[in-house]
Fold:
Amino acid sequence: MANYEVGSIVEGKVTGIKPFGAFVALDEKKQGLVHISEVAHGFVKDINDVLKVGDEVKVKIMNVEEESGKISLSIRATQEAPERPARPAKPRPAGGGGFGGGGRKPAPQKQQQQQGFNTLEDKLKEWLKQSNEIQADLNKRAKK
Structure:
């Protein structure tokens, strides 16, 4: 039985698939686990979309627990990370955005000149007032 060193890269064969990862045989007597987060760069929802039992894979030894003999493996550590293109800054809508407001004007903002905190009771009164104003506006539009 070979003694596997952390950091070494070896060939293995997928022997089992579970929702949390894949078991990879390193030799006839030793196998390790590739956690689903170590299968590929990026998010893997279903490991079955990436690996199948019998696949030959190149894995990196991430950890070897001396007492239990468990071996943690990584496939993505053997692959070069894909370049991520710089995301351009998205322009912000002038109307405050929202959920497809359809021309709805944003609620008037109260001037926050006062220092400190409002009590929950004060905030609830303010929210109810805003809600009533919005509801009255919607009722007016519905009558037109």
